[in-house]
Each structure stands twice: as C-alpha cells, then as structure tokens.
Amino acid sequence: MRAVPEVGASRPEGPTGAPRRVLAAMSGGVDSAVAAARAHDAGHDVTGIHLALSRNPASYRSGARGCCTIEDANDARRAADVIGIPFYVWDLSDRFHEDVVEDFMDEYAAGRTPNPCLRCNEKIKFAAVLERGLALGYDAVATGHYAQLATGPDGLVEMHRAVDDGKDQSYVLGVLDQRQLAHSLFPLGGSTKADVRLEAAERGLLVADKPDSHDICFVADGDTAGWLQDKLGDRAPNHEGPIVDAETGEELGRHAGTYGFTIGQRKGLRIGRPAPDGKPRFVLDIEPVSGTVTVGPHERLAVRRLTGIRPRWCGSAPTRLQGTVQLRAHGSELPATVVVSGEAVEVELHEPAYGIAPGQAAVVYDGTRVVGSATIAATA
C-alpha cells in the first residue's frame, strides 16, 4: 500500500462545511454499497441510484462475469434498505448504448483497442448522471471506486491513487475533469478491499461476499471476439483478410475479422505453423482498410514513444512533465517525459513498453496525483 500525504478519501463537506445532497451510484456490488453507507454516516443526504444500462438485462449474472443484471438491481435495492436511504433505478440504457457500446464497436472496426470503462466513467457515471443530479439539486455523486481526492495548494481538486495498490482504480478515472472531480466523492480510497468486505458484513449488507465483476459488463460471457463477430459480422469493411509474417511478408493464414485481434495478442492466431526460430508470434499491427493483420516476434512489440489525442486534464494542462504513465488498467507505472502542445500529447518512455495498442488510454501521473489522460493514436 502507498501513503498519499494530506489526501481526504471522501471530501465529506461542501465549501461551507455543510453536508451535501449526494447521489450514491449503487451497482449492486459490495464497494458501492459501503461507499453509500459511508456517505450516509458522514451526514450527507444520500439517495441511492442504480443505473439500468442494458436494454435486455439478464436475470442472473454468471459468477464474476458482467454486471447490470436484474439480480444486481435487486441487490442494490436491498443494500439501500439496510442503509436506510431512498433508492431509484435510472434507465440510461439508450445513452450507454450510444456512447459506450457503439463507440466500442466503432473503435474495434477501425483497428483500435478501446477501454469501455473509461468511456463509461466519462460519458455516463460522471457526465449523464452528474448532469441529471445537478439539475435535480444534488451536489455530488458518490461511487465505490478506489481513488482519493484532496484540495491542492492551488485550490483545485486533485485525484490521487488509492492507498491499496491492488485495488487502485485511478486509471479508469483519468478522464474526469476539474468540474466532475469537484462534484465527486470516493469514500473507499483510504481502505483495502478486505476492510470493505468486513465492514459490509458488520453492517449486515448481504453483498459482503459477492464476487467482484470482471471483464466488459456488456460482454457477460467474456468472449469479446465472439461478441464483436455477432454484432459486426460481415457488415464491417474489414471482415476478412490475410495474416502476414512481418519478417518474411509471407501470408500465413486468413482471418474472419480484424476486430478479433488486438496488438500484443499471442493466442488464437490460428496460423498453423511455428516461426522458423520456433518462438511464438504476436500481433504487431492491424490495418483496418485492407484487413491485414501482421504478426511477428515479441521484441518488435517494443514501444518507446506514444502520440496521444483528445486529452482530458484533471486540472490545469501541463506543458512538460517528468512523471509516469500507466497504459493498461492493471499495468505498472512507467517513467516518462510528457510534452503537451494544444490537443497533442507526446510521451517518451524511459523504458520500453510492449503490446501497446492505438485506442488505449495513457494516464499521466505526477507522483500519486492523476494529471490526466489521452487516447493513444500512434506508437513508435
């Protein structure tokens, strides 16, 4: 675990020190239930809301796969009853489909690898929900994310990593801007997951031992390639094409859709025969127009420079920063020099990264503080 100096995990009071009207986003899991309970204990006027994001929600989830099922909505409602707060279900399925699901399909069809959790946080949980909440007179949205907030020396709200490295979710929150952070509460940022589960049990919350959800919530069985095949199929312009060896230029096989591949992928290539040196091949490049998937040795995945677009800054935009970047939700921090010029973000890595795909997010840190993020457009 890391120590974050002078960081308040929940920022429980408004500018005047008075309790706030808070919307607690309750997914039906243990984290959001305890976050809502802690906000209520802090004296806030809390209302629980469950976001109905699926147009056709399943009755039951399968283990830790997926979320947003009818079972999850019922679990959230029971937790709200135990806490003693009002509870409502908000149907945001149309906006979720347009802003998250359609974006996910479009990005894969274009040969990029998106992160739908970042897009959901940006467009749904801290945009659509916050917009509606502010219009209804609420002051903040509380979630069960593991991150910490503090007021910096310049008066701006800073977001920092959680104290629990293993549960830190600041990466998927790197798309939040200053206005959104100023209306956010993360009550769990100073806790470990074990502590949260124990607290849930002590509070009598039935979700105390509920498994965490994993994978992409709208791909409940975890088969992303199969889901994309079903949704895109031969409607995509790149629905079939060659698999080419980067070393020899030889066509090694054919594929049924570039959307079934991502940079760095090793398994499922179905190219039949090994490389001459016997080493495994990895996906090095995806060309969506011709539908060509290029494969080759692991060392050719090395990336030392990134170009980012569509930056989202948590506070003031930097011009040049010696810090770190995180390139995957569960990836390690890499030392880097970040140079910002308008909407362009250039990242020079001090050590190589492997398997980095356009469409992924590069989240920039200054120590434990999240500076912001950008979408990777090119690597070198």
From TrEMBL:
Pfam families: tRNA_Me_trans, tRNA_Me_trans_C, tRNA_Me_trans_M. Its EC number is 2.8.1.13. CDD domains: MnmA_TRMU-like. Residues 231-296 form the tRNA-specific 2-thiouridylase MnmA-like central domain. It catalyses: S-sulfanyl-L-cysteinyl-[protein] + uridine(34) in tRNA + AH2 + ATP = 2-thiouridine(34) in tRNA + L-cysteinyl-[protein] + A + AMP + diphosphate + H(+). It is found in: Cytoplasm. Keywords: ATP-binding, Cytoplasm, Disulfide bond, Nucleotide-binding, RNA-binding, Transferase, tRNA processing, tRNA-binding. The keyword Transferase applies. Gene3D superfamilies: Adenine nucleotide alpha hydrolases-like domains (2.30.30.280), HUPs (3.40.50.620), Translation factors (2.40.30.10). ATP binds at residues 25-32, 51, 144. The record marks 145, 360 as: Interaction with tRNA. SUPFAM superfamilies: Adenine nucleotide alpha hydrolases-like (SSF52402). Residues 304-376 form the tRNA-specific 2-thiouridylase MnmA-like C-terminal domain. It is an enzyme of class 2 (transferase). GO terms for molecular function: tRNA-uridine 2-sulfurtransferase activity. It comes from the Bacteria. Disulfide bonds join 120-217. The active site is at residues 120, 217. Residues 167-169 are annotated as: Interaction with tRNA. Belongs to the MnmA/TRMU family. Catalyzes the 2-thiolation of uridine at the wobble position (U34) of tRNA, leading to the formation of s(2)U34. This is tRNA-specific 2-thiouridylase MnmA. It comes from Nocardioides plantarum.
